[in-house]
Design a protein that fits this description.
The model has no long low-confidence stretch (mean pLDDT 84). The protein has 404 residues and is mainly alpha-helical. 26% of the residues are buried. The chain has a three-stranded antiparallel β-sheet, covered by helices on one side. It contains 19 helices and three strands. Helix 8 (168-188) crosses helix 10 (204-218).
Length: 404
């Protein structure tokens, strides 16, 4: 009785060295290897399709814990396999992280390098960490590099937490504004409708307000459906590469916030390039990795030209100086480091300095945003109050005038 051949999900390399992935039916991994060789492809790894489990990106908090455990255990003389086994068996691991760690352990036991095993875990581990581990394997300082990356991701986690906590109040305030407006338009204003209906002429603000109130009251379901369609649509449009590029450029040139965002982006880049350069990764490769950690596609898009300048013999400081989106403090520090031959220590110093300034910038952005939202809320509520009171005071004036 014939049975269908199992399907394998594989990763392979072409003769040009390009990494590719795909699916193919084969009797076993040896058969898959032979079939790929006929297509001039070289098998890197393979799993049966039914065994493949999607692994999502690991958050900075768990990356920090992973790196710290690798660094601590390696420095204590524990073998890599045993260290990975300890990490994989930790009961505090989430399902996603546990799957990734178990896969790495299994592949390292089979003779794979740690960096290669991490690279095989879909998008679980960032390119930065994979390259840092690969460099450490070559230099033989996995413990030191792991501890450095543990600090790096711990700082990244703290930064994200700070931004999240700092923006919580403005988010709540924005939600309150929307709720108050809907409540007043949909419930409070209709209470005055009978009173105002008896008046011959209403002021323009009152007419506008009641038109909005009628719209909310009569078409609330349609407005909800429209909102449910509009929000995802706007999010989709915002993620279109060309649109996102324009939005990211606009962010950098908005009053007050643009200058503060430049400090945040510069801090991210400075810390990443400092860690990469200190680990001995070539500056061109370090730039290609660091550009992806900035979080702004407009700044990222300028790095092709910056990398080209360095490849033709240009200085790092001149290349970064031409990038719109970084503070001049970064390029000045890099230039001093190049002139004194202490670029590594200068990069580390500017990274520490920019991280402090980044924390201050986040605090300043929140401190600026909160009163702006309060003013917006006051204007909206004030407009509603004035629109309601204008015809009432107008009717009082008419009554008092008619008495004379």
């Amino acid at each position: 009785r014939s049975t269908a051949m199992p399907k394998y999900v594989y990763k392979a390399k072409t003769e040009e060295g390009e990494k590719i992935s795909g699916q193919m039916q084969a009797m076993d991994e040896n058969d898959l290897h032979l079939k790929l060789r006929q297509e001039n492809k070289y098998l890197i790894s393979a799993k049966r399709a039914e065994e493949v489990q999607r692994i999502h990106k690991i958050k900075a908090k768990y990356l920090s814990e992973f790196c710290r455990q690798i660094g601590t255990l390696s420095a204590s003389g524990v073998s890599l396999v045993r260290a990975l086994n300890i990490i994989a068996q930790d009961e505090s691991n989430k399902k996603n992280e546990k799957t990734a760690y178990e896969n790495i352990l299994r592949q390292v036991r089979q003779g794979k390098a740690l960096s290669e095993a991490m690279e095989d875990q879909d998008e679980a581990f960032p390119e930065l960490l994979i390259n840092m581990v690969r460099s450490a394997e070559t230099a033989g300082n996995l413990d030191e590099t792991s501890m450095r990356m543990a600090d790096y991701y711990d700082k990244q986690f703290r930064m994200h937490s700070k931004i999240s906590n700092a923006t919580l109040y403005p988010k709540i305030l924005s939600f309150v504004i929307v709720v108050v407006v809907i409540f007043m338009l949909g419930y409070i204003l209709p209470q005055f409708q009978d009173l105002f209906a008896q008046m011959e002429e209403l002021p323009l603000p009152t007419k506008i307000l009641f038109a909005m109130s009628d719209g909310v009251k009569e078409h609330w379901l349609m407005l909800l459906i429209l909102l449910a369609i509009l929000v995802p649509l706007l999010m989709f449009v915002a993620h279109i590469p060309k649109v996102r590029l324009q939005l990211d450029q606009m962010k950098l040139h908005t009053p007050i916030f643009g200058k503060l965002l430049k400090i945040v982006y510069t801090a991210r880049f400075a810390r990443t390039i400092s860690s990469l350069y200190a680990s001995g990764i070539p500056i061109v490769q370090a730039l290609q990795i660091a550009r992806k950690t900035i979080g702004n596609t407009y700044i990222d898009s300028q790095f092709d030209e910056a990398v080209a300048k360095i490849r033709t013999g240009g200085n790092l400081s001149d290349a970064l100086d031409a990038v719109d989106g970084f503070t001049k403090k970064l390029t000045s520090a890099v230039r001093v480091g190049e002139e004194t031959g202490s670029l590594d220590s200068m990069l580390n110093s500017i990274a520490d300095s920019m991280e402090f300034e980044s924390n201050m910038a986040i605090d300043k952005m929140v401190a600026t945003l909160e009163p702006v939202l309060i003013v917006v809320m006051a204007i909206i509520v004030g407009f509603i109050m004035v629109s309601v009171l204008m015809p009432i005071y107008g009717s009082y004036d008419a009554i008092s005038n008619s008495g004379y």
